[in-house]
Structure formats: C-alpha cells, structure tokens
Specification:
The structure is a single chain. It contains 16 helices and 12 strands. It is of the alpha+beta class. The longest helix has 32 residues. The protein is globular and about 55 Å long.
Amino acid sequence: MLRVNDIDLTDWEFWRRPHEHRREAFKTLRRQPELVRFEEPDVVFVPQGPGYYAVTRYADLVEASRRPEDFCSGKGATSIWDMPGDLHEYFGSMISMDDPRHAKIRRIVSRAFSPRMIQRFEDQVEAVAAQIVENVTAGGGTGDFVADIAARLPLKIICDMMGIAEEHYGTVFDATNVVLAGNDTEYLPSEDPEEIAMALLHAGETLKNLVEELGRQRRKDPADDLVSALVNANIDGESLTDQELGSFFILLVVAGNETTRNAIAHALDLFTRDPAQRALLTEDFEAGIPGAVEEIVRYVSPVIWMRRTATRDTMLNEHEIKEGDKLLLYYWSANRDESVFTEPEKFDILRDPNPHVGFGGPGPHFCLGAHLARREITVLFRELLRRAPGIRASGEPDYLESHFINGIKHLPYTL
C-alpha cells in the first residue's frame, strides 16, 4: 500500500507509471478520512492557483454532482488551472457552463436530436460498423485496432450527424487528438507549455471555423443534418450563436469521438486478457452485451476526472469546503470504490448492479451522448464477433500520456 506522501496526482511522472501503480494510489486516497489536497500545475501562461482536492470516493463524487448550485462547472470543468478566456470559450461549451446558460444550450441541443434523427443515425451505426468490419476482414488480418476500427466508427457517425463532408474527416481527427493530447508528444509539437497552448488554440480554431462556415451555409440552405437543426432552431426565442455552435461542435467531436473510441480499444484489450469473459459474451451475445457495455465503461472510465468549484462555504458529506475550493471528481477512482463495487479490479460483464459513473455523476452534466456511445460499442462488437470471431489484441496497448483521458493511441491486433 502506498503512503499518501508518495502520491502526487499533479506530477506527470505519476501518470506515466503502470496502471497497477495508479490503482494502488487511488485505493490509498479513498481510505483517507479527509480529502487530500494537491498543488496545481505550474504553467507559464496563467498564475499558479491555490490547489485542488481529489474527490476519489463514490459517495463524495455523487453528492458533489447532485449539487451544481454548490459545486459549479462554470469556472472550468476540464482544466485544473483557470483557463484564459479564449481557451475557456473554445473548449468549454456546455460542459463548462452552469444554469441558466447551460439549460438553454442543452434544451436547444436536445430538441435538435429529434426521434427521427436519432433513429436515422442508430440505423447508420449498423451500416458503418458492417463496412468497417468488412474492410478489415478483407485486409491482411493484422494492423492497428485504433486506426483501423475503434476510431473510425465514432468519427464517421459524428461527422455525418453534423453534416461534415468526408474530405474533412482527417482534419477533425487530427484536431481532436491535439485537444485531448494531455502531455503526449506524439500529438503535440513539444513539451513547452506555450507551444502546447498555441497548438490547442489552433486545433480549437480549426474545428470552430469548420462548423461555423457550415452553419452559415445551413442557415441559407438547410439540409437533413444536426447543424441545420441547431442553427435554425428557435425555442422560446432562443437559438445558438456562432460561438455556441462552434464550442458545441468541439465538445461533440472530442467527447463523442475520443471517449467512445477509447472504450472500444480498451474493450478488445480486456477481452483478449480475459478469455473467460469473452466466452461469456459470445455464448449469448444479445443477453450479455448490455452488461458488458456498462462494465467496459466502468472499468475503463474513459474520462478520468472533471472539475467543480465551490460557490460557497459548505460541507461535502463530512468534508468542510470553502468558497472557491477546486475539486477534481475522479470517476476512474469512484468506479473502483470497494464500498460500492465487489472486487472492483475484476472485469466482470455479469456485474449487477453496476451503478458506475463512467458517463458522469447524477445531475445536469450527465453525458448527453451516453445512449449513442452504448449503441456504437454494442453494434461494433456484434459485427466483430460475428464476422471476425478470432480477433484479439496481439500486443500491449500504447497508452496516451494524459491525466484526463484514459486513452489508447495504438493497439496491435490480429484476426
């Protein structure tokens, strides 16, 4: 068991260590009677902040999520430090808003996802997954599972949903990799903080400009896509501004593309490492896949944390919180809380109940795309196990160097 003094969640070296080390560290933090405070990263383009509390226990995370009036998102949800205004606007969108503005955006977006549109794209998931698997089975039988399979399905579905032309898929893919690169130099120009900030701004601008230009076209000439529905929506006199449309698109392609692709990639790795769980799923796929999807999301926890900021002096269960305190809600840790999950480190597709927080805790910021993510994982593995039943990972995952996203960059596979 690690000691608290041996743990520094702010140090990049912590996140470079094996996942076994991470599991032991969070187990130690969950057992502390008080919330543990860590220093904020020291970045050159903003003053160093006062630090943050690591919320690692399930009960504390759920309670904070249920009380947005006490623990707000509007000060920043995806960054430990307080982002400058331009970065905050690009990458914030709904996820870094509080009511009433959050309610307005969510209301417009939810109305745009009409039952007819949802059904259309659910049907398209099946067609796209079938084509991806057909291409793979017709190929050489080996490759990179992330590039060949896991990344292709969510990217195409989201781009088609928004009306983004296929010629721009590569641009969207590259920009989202930068936005969620963490500290990974495969996607970033260097480890220099100023260069990283410029790369993030450029990626945000690229995505924002792409969808704003499309939005201007769709206002004049609407089509049967989500951008048309969003820019022409008028609900109780409310509609999206160009800035809100651009920020929503960044959120959608980042959250809906990167997180789902990582869940899919981790799933193949998990089923390769645990043949017994794979056999359980293949024995009766339709009966087993709903539980398997929930267990994949719990075990993987694609988004490791989100930030909240205390709006006043208050209590979080037995913890005293001061106005302005920053709290990082560690979903990855809460989903392994021994007081909630029996044998939490065991991957068990029959786990029942499974009240995981892999799509966020209860409250206004529960993942808007949870249904689509479940659908994509289900359909892709149905196709894979039907048409390529021998598929498995043939090597170790190449993990993304990030404290925010539990990502796999590359995963070799064989049929």
